[in-house]
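Checklist before submission:
- one chain only
- standard amino acids only
- sequence pasted in full

Submission:
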Amino acid sequence: MRLYPASAVARTRTLTRDLIVLGLLVVFAWTGMKVHDGILELTSVGRSIQDSGRAISATTRNTASAVDGAFADAGSAVSGIPLVGEQLGGTLRRAPAGATSALRSTGDEQGARIVRLGVEQVNKTETAANWAGRLVFALPALVLLAWFLPGRVRLVRGMVVADRTLRDAPEHILAARAAYNLPYETLRRYTQDPFGDLADGRHGALVKALRQESGLP
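Returned file contents:
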């Protein structure tokens, strides 16, 4: 199967058009990637939200530990008091347990909820980045290919059909086909007297014109 015309001029023209289309597809793909990466940078907001949730949980735990530690120190300080020291110290050490446990639980719950919000925001941003990048590439690429491919397919199909049709055809029939069907301007590029050549049996230039204008060598 022949993909490019045999004529140097037509081959160069077709190849140039192919390269331009390929270059535009590369530009569309690069633009889509840039849009994707630009939107993806917004995931830093979601990650900051996650960090805030973890910080809240850590802060409440540290606060609860500090309160437990303060009461434990106070309990140790009074443990030396005769008779009631040990009992009072134990009471002080156990005193904040309910409050600090609730504080830890609340902090962990609120922190986890905020972390989940951050994860959800990151996921939504990544999905938006993927779709936006694909659309920025796909929409212009589809328009370009819808305009380009039908003509390119017709060119290749035409050369294939022409090669099969002209391969074993009698030379005088091909010459007549060229003389009667090709535009006058085209014929004059190959011979100054196309109909004289046909009448006198000089078929070479006419056959060459027909084959080259069909994209064949």
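Reviewer check: The chain has one domain: 8-168.
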